[in-house]
Amino acid sequence: MNKSNMKKLFTLLAFLPLVALASESEITVKAPIDPTNKESLQRGAHTFINYCLNCHSAKYMRYNRLVDIGFTEKQIKDNLLFAGEKVGDTMQVAIDPVEAKKWFGVTPPDLSVEVRARGAD
């Protein structure tokens, strides 16, 4: 290893603790959550159903509860149900839990109770 590379490595190692401290401090920052912002909640629900629900279940949440954030039953049926679910069904995971554990090492957790478990932030 030449002298230039040694200096770069030393500089990187010297600043590594500062990067770790900076990333830890960001965890304590409060999230700017506005539970009255229906558009944001609807975007989040749409994103969750389209992307997260493939691996993470929300088995304690029913699709019809999305009317609480401003969706109509027609919008739920037309935009959020893809595999023959009914509006009153619970949000089940699409992946087989045995396969998920084999692929990821653990079964992805059910996210319907995460807010209660971790708090709003």
Instruction: Report the sheet with the most strands, covering strand number, pairing sense and barrel closure.
Output: 2 strands, antiparallel
Order of helices and strands: HHEHEHH
Strand order of the largest sheet: 1-2
- Beta-strand percentage? 5-15%
Low-confidence runs of at least 5 consecutive residues? none
How many helices? Answer: 5
Instruction: Kindly state the number of beta strands.
Output: 2
State the secondary-structure class: mainly alpha
Oligomer: single chain
CA-based gyration radius: 21 Å
Helix content: 40-55%
**Mean pLDDT rating:** 80
Spatial shape:
globular
* Terminal Cα span: 46 Å
What key phrases describe this protein's structure?
49% helix; single chain; globular; mainly alpha
What is the element layout, followed by pairings?
Layout: H1 3-27, H2 38-51, E1 58-62, H3 73-79, E2 90-91, H4 97-104, H5 114-118
Account of the protein in words:
By secondary structure, the chain is mainly alpha-helical. It has helices at residues 3-27, 38-51, 73-79, 97-104, 114-118, and strands at residues 58-62, 90-91. Strands 1-2 form a two-stranded antiparallel sheet. Helix content is 49%, strand content 6%. The chain is built from 5 helices and 2 strands. The mean pLDDT is 80. The chain is globular, with a radius of gyration of 21 Å. 9% of the residues are buried.
